[in-house]
Amino acid sequence: MQKLAILTLVLALAAAKFVDTHASLAQIDANPFGNVVLSAIKAHLQAQTPANEVNMLLNGVAAGLQQDQNDHDHAFELDTTTNNRIVEDLEKEILYHQNQISSNTQLRDDTIEALAVSEEDIRVTISDIATNEQTYAREEATRNQQHETFVAKVAAIDDVIDAIDDAAKLIQHLSLGASFVQVKSKYETVHKRLTDNTSHSQLLQPVVVALTELATHGVNQKALTKIAQLLSEIRQQLVQEKAVKTDVEDRQAAHWAEFSAHLSNEHTRLVERKAQLEVQIQEQKDTIEDAQSWIEFHTLELENSEERLAGQQAWYAVQSEIYETQTAERAAQNEIVDRLQEHISEKLSTTAQFISKRN
């Protein structure tokens, strides 16, 4: 409103060139500044000072107005420079906090995704460890059962071979001339061992039958030779069977040694992988927590910087308003001085008459 009034006054003063002197001076007198200047001029006129001193007075006023404007221009220039620097710094702060919020938000979101992958990896790894341990336990039990079966079967074969060897010695004694009566006790022991055997009963059946016939029909060299040959063949079969089973056992043992080593190595790898994932997951959780803390920190700092920027801009707007208002006021005052100088120079008597009649 004040600026509008000043602008109106300026326009009115400009239009005053086309109205009479009294009307122009009345307009000037109605202005507080104009009233003060007219009072000063009246004092000079009453003291009957020369007209040039009145002009000097007005020139002094005009010079004072110009100096005030120069000072005000300089002060406003300093304010503008300071404001621009502060605004630039605050805008840099705002940009910095915005970038930090953006980068930490991206870091947090990326790490949340990575954490989900890590948690799935450790879930799979834990499952793989359990599967590995179950496989080891199952295969170890199978291998132990295989070995126990091998030991039992080899023991059975050795028992049969031992019985076959006893039978061969018995036949040898008979072949060398011993009577059946002499070896009867040994015969009965051997016959019982062969008869009671269950692991190789089918293989031993011909020997059992031959020995039974030997006891029933009497001893003869042909029967002894046949039995000896039969025992030799059976023994050879048993030795071959034992060799086959031993070979199978050796291959199974070698396979288990290799497979168990593989399972153990895989178990070690999985356990180490689980430990690495646990550390990684904790680090990712820490990263997410830190990023969130920084987001919150920079959000607060951003709000603070934006508030300071708004405050600075509001302050500068006020300073600009004051500068423009005071500049307009001085322009109006300079216009008053110019009009008075014009009236005094061109219409001194009329001006003096008007001034003398003022209260």
From TrEMBL:
The signal peptide, as residue positions, is: 1-16
Q: Which UniProt keywords apply?
A: Signal
Taxonomy, superkingdom: Eukaryota
This chain belongs to which protein, by name? Trichocyst matrix protein
